[in-house]
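haha ok so turns out i had the wrong file open the whole time. this is the CORRECT one, sorry everyone. sequence first:
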Amino acid sequence: MEVLLRIRNLLSAWFLHILPQQQNVMLEEKVRERTRELEASQLEVLERLAQAAEFRDDDTGKHTQRVGEMAARVASAMGLPKEQIEYIRQAAPLHDVGKIGISDTILLKPGKLTDEEFETIKEHAAIGARLLTNGHSKLVQLAEIIAHSHHERWDGRGYPQKLKEEEIPIEGRIVAIADVFDALTNERPYKKAWPVGEAQSEIEKQSGKQFDPRVAAALLEILAEDP
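then structure:
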């Protein structure tokens, strides 16, 4: 009896010790699951916001996704950390969210823009940054940076801040080239699609001018490997 009583006491003590640990593990898993759900919901909302802007001048709504994928490939070819690559993939589709604030008359104009109209359309970079400003998550903060900087140029002749070279955030430099390449190789209301070879030649020509030479080299490397 004494042995059984001792065993019973030991088991009771063990259960009293292990039960809180199991409860903590279950609670931590629930928190992780809830965090994943919130992150997925946030990403879905951001993707839909990006599509809402893109449908303005791309009735397929695929431009933003293609830019995100190409930007991630360029980032990977440059050897950026995996976490940074994934953030670029997710944030890049919001690069043109500021188009929401641009009139259809200008955005969908089939012919060449006047100087005044071009100045108006350039405002979308600053508008996008304002829409995304003061974000609490790293993803929204990066999306703001990309929206604001993806039309800056390596030679300092871009907009809206006329940043040059390393002053431009690396994410903005990467999305800039992915955006231009996709815009060149796909049809828009105001232009026909360019053959990939012609777009490639344009990227080579603009390396060191419009584009960071390292970023351009990474994209050209990808194009050389693609079938």
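Residues 2-225 form a domain with the Hypothetical protein af1432 fold (CATH 1.10.3210.10).
again sry for the mixup
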